[in-house]
Amino acid sequence: MTEARELIRLDGVSFQYGSFPVLDKVSFSIAQGDFLAILGPNGSGKTTLVKIVLGLIRPTRGRIDLMGRPVEEFKAWSKIGYVPQKASHIDPFFPATVREIVAMGLLSSRPPAGYRKKEEEQAITLALERVGMAAFKNRPIGDLSGGQQQRVIIARAIVNAPELLFLDEPTAGVDAATQELFYEMLYHLNEAQMITIILVTHDIGIVTKHVNKVACLNQRLVYHGTHTDFCRSEEFKTMLAAGHLVSHIH
Amino acid sequence: MEALFNYGFFQRALLAGLFVALACAILGLFLLLRKDAMIGHGLAHVTFGGVALGLFLNVLPLATALVVAVLASWAIMKLKERAGLHGDTAIGIFSSVGMALGIALATIAGRFNADLLSYLFGDILAIDRLEVVLSLVLAAAVIIIILANYHRLMYLTFDRESAKASGVKTARLNLILTVLTSVTVVLGMKVVGILLVTALLVIPAAAALLLARSFKQALILSSLVAFLSVVGGLLAAFYLDLPASATVVLLSFFIFIVFFVRRRRRTV
Fold first, then answer.
1. d(CA B36, CA B87)
2. Cα–Cα distance for residue pair A97/A136, rounded to 1 Å
3. Any chain B CB within 8 A of the CB of A82?
4. Residues 132-191 of B with CB under 8 A from A
5. In what order do the strands lie in the sheet with A213-218?
6. What whole-number distance in Å separates Cα of residue B146 and Cα of residue B217?
7. Strand pairing of A220-226 and A20-31?
C-alpha cells in the first residue's frame, strides 16, 4: 500500500507576540485526504498556526513546507482554499452578489483575460452547487442568513478545486441544525471530492463523527493522531473536563 | 443651452470635470468600502501644504504637491501598520500638519494667499487645455489600473486576509490604491478644488452604496451620480451665477438624498 502524499510539514514552529509565547516547537505533518481537526483552549495558538501555514504571518522559529516547498517560496496558492474565522460576520452592506463573491476566489489569481466567460460561469456554478447555493447565485450576499453566507464563503474557497481547505471555526454564530448540515457538506467534500481539510474547532461533535485526525494544541502540540485514539486519550478527558470542547452534534 | 455647449471654456470644464469625477467615483467606492473615506479629505489638506511649499520654494506647485501627497499617503499607511493607529487617527495627524504647513508658509512668504485660495476652491470654468489632458490621462490611468486588478481589488476590499491567503499581493495593491488616490486628489484639486475633489470621492460612492445590489452596479451608479452632478452642477453654476464647485457638491448631495429616500421606501 502506498503512503499518502504529504501536503504540509511543520518542523519546530514557534511564534511569540512580543515576549508572549503563542506556539512552542510545534512539529507534525498532514497527508493528502486527511480531515484534520485542530483543537485546543482559547489562546492555545490554533488560529496563529493556521495563519503561519498560510504564510499570513511569519514564525519566530521553525520551518513550514507546503506541498513540498518552503512556505516562503510557495506560489500555487490557487491549490489552497481558506475560510477565515470571521467569515460569518460579513458586512451586510457590502454590495456584492453571491456570484461576485465566488468569482473573487476564481479570478483574483488570474490575469484579466485569463478565464473565458463560459468556463468562469461553469466553475462558479459548480462550486455553488457543491455547497447547495446555486439557486442564490444572483442574490446580494447581505440578504442571506449567516449559515448561507458561510456556504458562499466555502464556495469561494473551493472554486479553484483546491487540494487543501483550511477552515477556522467556520460555524461560530451559526445555529446547531445548520452546523450539522454544514459538517455533512465538509465530510462530502473530503470523501467525494478528495479535498484535504484542516478545521479549527471547539466542537467535539465533528471530531467524533467526521474527522479522521486530530491535532491538539496548547502552545505545544499535546496530541496528534487518529480521532479514535484521541477520544480514548487523557488529553481528551482533560479538555472535556475543562470545558474546552462543546458538542453541537448528537 | 445648446450655445453654452459650444463655448470652449464650458467644453473644457465639462470634459475635465467628468474625467476627474469618473476617477473619483471609481476610487471612492473602494475607499468607502475599506472604511477609508476620509483619506481623500486628509490628502487634500496635505496637498494644500504641498502647494504652499511649492509656491514658497518657487518650484512647480503641482509637482511638489504630488510628491508631498504620495509621501504622506505612504506615511499614513505605514503609521497605521506600524504604530497600530486607526486610519482616521493617522489621517487626522497628517491632514492637520499639512494645513498647518500651508498656513505657516503662506504667512512667512506673505505673498501667495490668492494662489492658495484658487487651489482650495478651484476654478473649473477657467481650466486650460493642459489640465483637460491631465484629467483625461488620470481618468484613463485609474480606469485601466482598476479594471486590470478588478477582482483582486474587490477581494482585498471584501476580505483582506483571505485575499492574501489566495496569493493576492495585498501590500502592492494597497500601495497602488494609495498612490492613485494621491494623484487623483492632486490633479483634481487643481481642476476642481479641494472642496470638490473630496466630495466627489465620497458622495457619489456613498449614494451608489444605498441602492446597489452588486459591485458592478455600485461602480456604474457611483459613476452615474458623479456624471450627473458635474453636468447638472456646471449648468446650474452658469445659469444661477454660483461657484461651480459648490453647485456640483450640492447637486451630488441632493442625489444622495433622493437615493436615501428611495432606499427607505424599498426597505419599509
1. 7
2. 9
3. yes
4. 147-148, 150-152, 154-155, 158-159, 161-168
5. A80-83, A164-168, A196-200, A35-39, A213-218, A220-226
6. 15
7. unpaired
Quote the CA–CA distance of B82 and B71 in Å, as a whole number.
16
* Interchain contact, A104 vs B158, CB within 8 Å: yes
Please give the radius of gyration of chain B, using alpha carbons only, rounded to the nearest integer.
18
pTM: 0.86
Stretches in chain B below the pLDDT threshold 70? 1-2, 87, 111-114, 267-268
| Half-sphere CA count of A146, side-chain side, radius 13 A | 15
Supply the pLDDT for residue A250: 42
- What is the C-alpha to C-alpha distance for residues B118 and B95, in angstroms, rounded to an integer? 19
Q: Could you count the other beta carbons within 10 Å of the beta carbon of residue A115?
A: 17
Query: Is there a contact between A109 and B216 if contact means CB atoms under 8 Å apart?
Result: no
Q: What is the pLDDT of residues A200-239, one digit of tens each?
A: 987 777 777 788 888 988 888 988 888 777 777 777 777 7
Contact B213, B36 (CB under 8 A): no
Chain centroid, CA A157 distance in Å = 9
Cβ within 8 Å, pair A96-B168: no
Q: Would the CB atoms of B166 and A105 count as touching at under 8 Å?
A: yes
The full length of chain B comes to: 268
- What DSSP letter does each residue of B96-110 carry, written as one string? HHHHHHHHHHHHHH-
Beta-ladder partners of B5: none
Chain B residues within an 8 Å CB radius of A108: 151-152, 155, 163, 166-168
Question: Which of B213, B223, B260 should be substituted to probe chain A, the one whose Cβ sees the most A Cβ atoms within 10 Å?
Answer: B213
C-alpha dihedral sign at B220, B222, B228, B230: negative
Contact A131, A185 (CB under 8 A): yes
Q: What is the DSSP letter of A192?
A: T
Binary contact (A77, B209; C-beta < 8 A):
no
Predicted ipTM of the assembly = 0.84
Does the beta-carbon distance from A84 to B218 stay under 8 Å? no
How many residues does the structure list for chain A?
250
With contacts defined as CB-CB under 8 Å, which chain A residues touch B165? 54-56, 77, 80, 82, 84, 166
